[in-house]
Amino acid sequence: MAEFDLIDLIRERCAIAREDVRVGIGDDAALLAIPHGQLLAVSTDSLVAGVHFPSQTKAYDIGWKALAVNLSDLAAMGATPAWATLALTLPNADARWVGEFADGFAALAREYKLALVGGDTTQGPLSITVTIHGFVRENAALLRGGARPGDAVFVTGTLGDAAAGLRCLDKNDGDATRLLASPPATREVLIERLNRPTPRVAQGLTLRGRASACIDVSDGLLADLGHICAASGVGAEIDVDELPSSPALLALFDAQARRALQLAGGDDYELCFTAAERAAATLQQDLARSGCAALRIGRIVAESGVRARDGAGNPVTLSRSGWEHFS
Ligand code: ADP
Ligand code: MG
After folding, report:
1. 98 C-alpha to center of ligand 1: Å?
2. N or C: lower Cβ tally within 10 Å for the chain?
3. 218 close to 72: Cβ distance less than 8 angstroms
4. Is the model's pTM score more than 0.85?
Protein backbone atom coordinates (compact mmCIF):
# COMPACT_ATOMS: atom_id res chain seq x y z
CA MET A 1 0.00 0.00 0.00
CA ALA A 2 1.30 3.48 -0.91
CA GLU A 3 1.95 6.23 1.66
CA PHE A 4 -1.08 8.28 0.60
CA ASP A 5 -3.42 5.27 0.78
CA LEU A 6 -2.19 4.65 4.32
CA ILE A 7 -2.88 8.29 5.24
CA ASP A 8 -6.40 7.99 3.73
CA LEU A 9 -6.99 4.83 5.72
CA ILE A 10 -5.95 6.54 8.97
CA ARG A 11 -8.06 9.61 8.15
CA GLU A 12 -11.18 7.51 7.47
CA ARG A 13 -10.85 5.37 10.59
CA CYS A 14 -10.16 8.36 12.85
CA ALA A 15 -12.72 10.79 11.38
CA ILE A 16 -14.15 12.96 14.15
CA ALA A 17 -15.84 16.25 13.29
CA ARG A 18 -14.96 19.34 15.32
CA GLU A 19 -16.09 22.83 14.49
CA ASP A 20 -12.74 24.28 15.64
CA VAL A 21 -10.82 22.28 13.00
CA ARG A 22 -10.91 24.69 10.01
CA VAL A 23 -8.41 22.61 8.00
CA GLY A 24 -7.46 19.08 9.06
CA ILE A 25 -5.55 16.24 7.35
CA GLY A 26 -4.83 16.90 3.68
CA ASP A 27 -3.14 20.27 3.45
CA ASP A 28 0.38 21.36 4.36
CA ALA A 29 -0.69 22.32 7.88
CA ALA A 30 -3.80 22.11 10.03
CA LEU A 31 -5.66 25.33 10.89
CA LEU A 32 -7.22 25.27 14.34
CA ALA A 33 -9.26 27.76 16.36
CA ILE A 34 -8.32 28.12 20.04
CA PRO A 35 -11.29 29.15 22.23
CA HIS A 36 -11.12 32.72 23.50
CA GLY A 37 -9.63 33.05 26.98
CA GLN A 38 -7.97 29.62 26.98
CA LEU A 39 -4.32 28.61 26.84
CA LEU A 40 -3.15 25.89 24.46
CA ALA A 41 -1.68 22.89 26.33
CA VAL A 42 0.72 20.91 24.09
CA SER A 43 2.52 17.65 24.85
CA THR A 44 4.42 14.98 22.85
CA ASP A 45 5.12 11.36 23.72
CA SER A 46 6.82 8.69 21.62
CA LEU A 47 6.42 4.92 21.77
CA VAL A 48 9.27 2.80 20.41
CA ALA A 49 8.76 -0.92 19.76
CA GLY A 50 10.59 -3.08 22.30
CA VAL A 51 11.12 -0.10 24.63
CA HIS A 52 7.63 1.24 25.41
CA PHE A 53 5.69 -1.86 24.43
CA PRO A 54 6.68 -5.50 23.89
CA SER A 55 7.24 -6.21 20.17
CA GLN A 56 4.35 -8.71 20.07
CA THR A 57 1.79 -6.10 21.23
CA LYS A 58 -1.32 -5.98 19.03
CA ALA A 59 -1.63 -3.04 16.62
CA TYR A 60 -4.97 -2.02 18.20
CA ASP A 61 -3.38 -1.79 21.65
CA ILE A 62 -0.41 0.21 20.32
CA GLY A 63 -2.82 2.71 18.73
CA TRP A 64 -4.77 2.97 21.98
CA LYS A 65 -1.68 3.36 24.12
CA ALA A 66 -0.05 5.94 21.83
CA LEU A 67 -3.01 8.23 22.43
CA ALA A 68 -3.61 7.21 26.07
CA VAL A 69 -0.13 8.24 27.24
CA ASN A 70 -0.61 11.65 25.62
CA LEU A 71 -4.12 12.11 27.06
CA SER A 72 -2.57 11.28 30.43
CA ASP A 73 -0.18 14.23 30.12
CA LEU A 74 -3.07 16.60 29.44
CA ALA A 75 -4.97 15.04 32.37
CA ALA A 76 -2.02 15.81 34.64
CA MET A 77 -2.25 19.47 33.57
CA GLY A 78 -6.02 19.66 34.08
CA ALA A 79 -6.48 20.37 30.36
CA THR A 80 -9.36 19.40 28.05
CA PRO A 81 -8.13 17.40 25.01
CA ALA A 82 -8.98 18.70 21.53
CA TRP A 83 -6.58 17.72 18.73
CA ALA A 84 -3.63 15.45 17.97
CA THR A 85 -1.04 14.84 15.28
CA LEU A 86 0.48 11.44 14.60
CA ALA A 87 4.00 10.73 13.32
CA LEU A 88 4.16 7.07 12.30
CA THR A 89 7.34 5.24 11.36
CA LEU A 90 6.51 1.80 9.95
CA PRO A 91 8.81 -1.03 8.83
CA ASN A 92 6.40 -1.77 5.96
CA ALA A 93 3.12 -0.50 4.50
CA ASP A 94 0.89 -3.18 6.04
CA ALA A 95 -2.70 -1.94 5.55
CA ARG A 96 -4.18 -4.45 8.00
CA TRP A 97 -1.76 -3.43 10.75
CA VAL A 98 -2.37 0.28 10.11
CA GLY A 99 -6.16 -0.25 10.08
CA GLU A 100 -6.10 -2.00 13.46
CA PHE A 101 -3.71 0.60 14.87
CA ALA A 102 -6.05 3.38 13.70
CA ASP A 103 -9.07 1.59 15.24
CA GLY A 104 -7.34 1.48 18.64
CA PHE A 105 -6.37 5.14 18.36
CA ALA A 106 -9.88 6.10 17.21
CA ALA A 107 -11.65 4.21 20.01
CA LEU A 108 -10.03 6.46 22.58
CA ALA A 109 -10.18 9.59 20.37
CA ARG A 110 -13.96 9.20 20.06
CA GLU A 111 -14.36 8.96 23.83
CA TYR A 112 -12.81 12.43 24.13
CA LYS A 113 -14.08 13.94 20.82
CA LEU A 114 -10.44 14.40 19.88
CA ALA A 115 -9.68 15.14 16.22
CA LEU A 116 -6.61 13.78 14.44
CA VAL A 117 -5.56 16.84 12.42
CA GLY A 118 -2.30 15.80 10.76
CA GLY A 119 0.92 13.88 10.99
CA ASP A 120 3.71 12.28 9.05
CA THR A 121 4.23 8.76 7.69
CA THR A 122 7.71 7.37 7.12
CA GLN A 123 9.48 4.02 6.75
CA GLY A 124 11.81 2.63 9.41
CA PRO A 125 11.76 0.66 12.71
CA LEU A 126 8.29 0.86 14.29
CA SER A 127 7.85 4.02 16.33
CA ILE A 128 4.89 6.28 17.03
CA THR A 129 4.93 9.91 18.12
CA VAL A 130 1.73 11.68 19.07
CA THR A 131 1.52 15.39 19.81
CA ILE A 132 -1.63 16.31 21.69
CA HIS A 133 -3.28 19.70 22.07
CA GLY A 134 -5.85 20.78 24.62
CA PHE A 135 -7.19 23.82 26.41
CA VAL A 136 -6.93 25.12 29.91
CA ARG A 137 -7.97 28.47 31.31
CA GLU A 138 -5.17 30.84 32.34
CA ASN A 139 -4.03 30.15 35.96
CA ALA A 140 -6.14 26.97 36.16
CA ALA A 141 -3.51 24.44 35.00
CA LEU A 142 -2.15 21.82 37.43
CA LEU A 143 1.60 22.33 37.73
CA ARG A 144 4.33 20.27 39.40
CA GLY A 145 5.67 23.15 41.45
CA GLY A 146 2.89 23.95 43.93
CA ALA A 147 3.27 21.29 46.66
CA ARG A 148 3.76 22.69 50.20
CA PRO A 149 4.86 21.01 53.47
CA GLY A 150 1.77 19.67 55.23
CA ASP A 151 -0.07 18.87 51.98
CA ALA A 152 -1.40 15.32 51.66
CA VAL A 153 -0.23 13.11 48.74
CA PHE A 154 -2.80 11.11 46.76
CA VAL A 155 -2.91 8.71 43.86
CA THR A 156 -5.89 7.77 41.67
CA GLY A 157 -6.87 4.17 40.85
CA THR A 158 -4.35 1.44 41.65
CA LEU A 159 -0.57 1.24 41.27
CA GLY A 160 1.75 -1.48 40.01
CA ASP A 161 -0.65 -3.26 37.66
CA ALA A 162 1.07 -2.37 34.38
CA ALA A 163 4.52 -3.38 35.64
CA ALA A 164 2.96 -6.58 36.97
CA GLY A 165 1.41 -7.18 33.53
CA LEU A 166 4.86 -6.82 31.98
CA ARG A 167 6.23 -9.44 34.38
CA CYS A 168 3.39 -11.78 33.40
CA LEU A 169 4.48 -11.48 29.74
CA ASP A 170 8.18 -12.02 30.43
CA LYS A 171 9.18 -15.64 29.82
CA ASN A 172 12.54 -14.93 31.47
CA ASP A 173 10.98 -13.57 34.67
CA GLY A 174 12.44 -15.22 37.79
CA ASP A 175 8.90 -16.20 38.75
CA ALA A 176 7.70 -17.13 35.24
CA THR A 177 6.72 -20.73 36.10
CA ARG A 178 4.51 -19.68 39.00
CA LEU A 179 3.00 -16.75 37.08
CA LEU A 180 2.20 -18.93 34.04
CA ALA A 181 0.42 -21.40 36.34
CA SER A 182 -1.81 -18.64 37.77
CA PRO A 183 -5.38 -18.07 36.49
CA PRO A 184 -5.20 -16.60 32.94
CA ALA A 185 -8.07 -14.18 33.71
CA THR A 186 -6.07 -12.63 36.58
CA ARG A 187 -2.97 -12.22 34.41
CA GLU A 188 -5.13 -10.79 31.64
CA VAL A 189 -6.41 -7.99 33.91
CA LEU A 190 -2.82 -6.88 34.57
CA ILE A 191 -1.71 -7.21 30.94
CA GLU A 192 -4.75 -5.15 29.90
CA ARG A 193 -3.63 -2.38 32.27
CA LEU A 194 -0.24 -2.41 30.51
CA ASN A 195 -1.65 -2.40 26.98
CA ARG A 196 -4.72 -0.23 27.40
CA PRO A 197 -4.12 2.33 30.13
CA THR A 198 -7.06 4.55 31.10
CA PRO A 199 -6.08 8.22 31.02
CA ARG A 200 -7.57 10.07 34.03
CA VAL A 201 -8.84 13.04 32.07
CA ALA A 202 -12.05 13.62 34.08
CA GLN A 203 -10.08 13.39 37.32
CA GLY A 204 -7.54 15.96 36.08
CA LEU A 205 -10.42 18.35 35.34
CA THR A 206 -11.86 17.73 38.82
CA LEU A 207 -8.48 18.64 40.36
CA ARG A 208 -8.22 22.05 38.64
CA GLY A 209 -7.83 24.87 41.13
CA ARG A 210 -7.90 22.35 44.01
CA ALA A 211 -4.75 20.21 43.85
CA SER A 212 -1.54 22.08 44.72
CA ALA A 213 0.56 19.92 42.32
CA CYS A 214 -0.07 17.03 39.93
CA ILE A 215 1.82 14.58 37.68
CA ASP A 216 0.90 11.41 35.84
CA VAL A 217 2.68 8.25 36.98
CA SER A 218 4.47 7.03 33.86
CA ASP A 219 7.96 6.22 35.18
CA GLY A 220 7.06 4.93 38.66
CA LEU A 221 5.71 6.61 41.80
CA LEU A 222 9.06 7.39 43.44
CA ALA A 223 10.45 8.94 40.27
CA ASP A 224 7.33 10.92 39.40
CA LEU A 225 6.56 12.14 42.91
CA GLY A 226 10.26 13.04 42.98
CA HIS A 227 9.57 15.41 40.05
CA ILE A 228 6.80 17.15 42.04
CA CYS A 229 9.13 17.45 45.02
CA ALA A 230 12.03 18.82 42.95
CA ALA A 231 9.80 21.36 41.20
CA SER A 232 8.18 22.41 44.50
CA GLY A 233 11.39 22.51 46.59
CA VAL A 234 9.97 20.03 49.12
CA GLY A 235 10.18 16.32 50.02
CA ALA A 236 7.63 13.54 50.56
CA GLU A 237 6.98 10.56 52.82
CA ILE A 238 5.11 7.60 51.36
CA ASP A 239 3.29 4.99 53.46
CA VAL A 240 3.87 1.86 51.38
CA ASP A 241 1.13 -0.06 53.19
CA GLU A 242 -1.39 2.55 52.00
CA LEU A 243 -0.59 2.19 48.28
CA PRO A 244 -3.73 1.17 46.34
CA SER A 245 -3.58 -2.42 45.00
CA SER A 246 -5.93 -4.08 42.53
CA PRO A 247 -7.39 -7.50 43.43
CA ALA A 248 -5.33 -9.02 40.57
CA LEU A 249 -2.08 -7.59 41.93
CA LEU A 250 -2.92 -8.86 45.43
CA ALA A 251 -3.70 -12.30 44.03
CA LEU A 252 -0.42 -12.74 42.14
CA PHE A 253 2.28 -10.94 44.12
CA ASP A 254 3.41 -10.95 47.77
CA ALA A 255 3.92 -7.76 49.78
CA GLN A 256 7.58 -7.35 48.86
CA ALA A 257 7.06 -7.87 45.13
CA ARG A 258 4.06 -5.51 45.21
CA ARG A 259 6.13 -2.75 46.80
CA ALA A 260 8.73 -2.88 44.06
CA LEU A 261 6.03 -2.83 41.36
CA GLN A 262 4.11 0.00 43.01
CA LEU A 263 7.05 2.24 43.90
CA ALA A 264 9.23 1.74 40.85
CA GLY A 265 7.04 0.17 38.16
CA GLY A 266 5.97 2.47 35.36
CA ASP A 267 3.13 2.72 32.85
CA ASP A 268 0.17 2.98 35.23
CA TYR A 269 -0.85 6.47 34.03
CA GLU A 270 -2.60 7.25 37.30
CA LEU A 271 -2.49 10.82 38.65
CA CYS A 272 -0.33 11.55 41.69
CA PHE A 273 -1.28 14.87 43.27
CA THR A 274 -0.96 16.91 46.41
CA ALA A 275 -3.62 18.96 48.18
CA ALA A 276 -3.96 21.03 51.32
CA GLU A 277 -5.44 19.07 54.23
CA ARG A 278 -8.63 21.18 54.36
CA ALA A 279 -9.40 20.47 50.66
CA ALA A 280 -8.76 16.72 50.90
CA ALA A 281 -12.10 15.27 51.99
CA THR A 282 -14.37 16.96 49.41
CA LEU A 283 -11.77 16.42 46.69
CA GLN A 284 -11.76 12.69 47.42
CA GLN A 285 -15.57 12.60 47.34
CA ASP A 286 -15.68 14.42 44.01
CA LEU A 287 -13.05 12.11 42.49
CA ALA A 288 -14.96 9.02 43.63
CA ARG A 289 -18.08 10.50 42.00
CA SER A 290 -16.09 11.11 38.77
CA GLY A 291 -15.57 7.35 38.49
CA CYS A 292 -12.06 6.91 39.88
CA ALA A 293 -11.32 7.24 43.59
CA ALA A 294 -8.01 8.58 44.92
CA LEU A 295 -6.28 7.26 48.03
CA ARG A 296 -4.10 9.21 50.41
CA ILE A 297 -0.61 7.68 50.35
CA GLY A 298 1.57 10.13 52.25
CA ARG A 299 2.48 13.72 52.99
CA ILE A 300 4.70 16.55 51.81
CA VAL A 301 7.53 17.57 54.14
CA ALA A 302 10.14 20.34 54.07
CA GLU A 303 13.19 18.04 53.87
CA SER A 304 13.96 17.20 50.21
CA GLY A 305 13.78 13.67 48.75
CA VAL A 306 11.10 10.98 48.64
CA ARG A 307 11.15 8.44 51.49
CA ALA A 308 9.00 5.31 51.73
CA ARG A 309 8.02 3.73 55.07
CA ASP A 310 6.11 0.60 56.03
CA GLY A 311 3.26 0.44 58.56
CA ALA A 312 5.74 0.07 61.46
CA GLY A 313 7.57 3.23 60.33
CA ASN A 314 10.64 1.38 59.00
CA PRO A 315 12.26 2.82 55.85
CA VAL A 316 11.73 0.86 52.63
CA THR A 317 14.47 1.02 50.01
CA LEU A 318 14.58 -0.24 46.44
CA SER A 319 17.45 -0.96 44.09
CA ARG A 320 16.04 1.26 41.36
CA SER A 321 13.56 4.07 41.71
CA GLY A 322 11.85 3.89 38.34
CA TRP A 323 12.62 3.57 34.71
CA GLU A 324 15.18 6.03 33.35
CA HIS A 325 16.33 6.02 29.77
CA PHE A 326 20.10 6.18 29.10
CA SER A 327 20.85 5.05 32.67
P1 ADP B 1 3.84 17.09 3.40
O2 ADP B 1 4.65 16.41 2.36
O3 ADP B 1 3.32 18.43 3.01
O4 ADP B 1 4.50 17.05 4.74
P5 ADP B 1 2.46 14.67 3.76
O6 ADP B 1 2.42 14.00 2.44
O7 ADP B 1 3.49 14.24 4.75
O8 ADP B 1 2.51 16.23 3.53
O9 ADP B 1 1.04 14.51 4.44
C10 ADP B 1 -0.15 14.83 3.74
C11 ADP B 1 -1.24 15.15 4.73
O12 ADP B 1 -1.50 14.00 5.50
C13 ADP B 1 -0.86 16.24 5.72
O14 ADP B 1 -2.03 16.97 6.02
C15 ADP B 1 -0.39 15.48 6.91
O16 ADP B 1 -0.60 16.21 8.11
C17 ADP B 1 -1.27 14.24 6.85
N18 ADP B 1 -0.65 13.02 7.43
C19 ADP B 1 0.48 12.39 7.04
N20 ADP B 1 0.73 11.30 7.77
C21 ADP B 1 -0.26 11.26 8.70
C22 ADP B 1 -0.56 10.38 9.78
N23 ADP B 1 0.21 9.31 10.08
N24 ADP B 1 -1.65 10.65 10.53
C25 ADP B 1 -2.42 11.72 10.26
N26 ADP B 1 -2.21 12.57 9.26
C27 ADP B 1 -1.14 12.35 8.49
MG1 MG C 1 5.05 15.29 5.74
Report:
1. 15
2. C
3. yes
4. yes
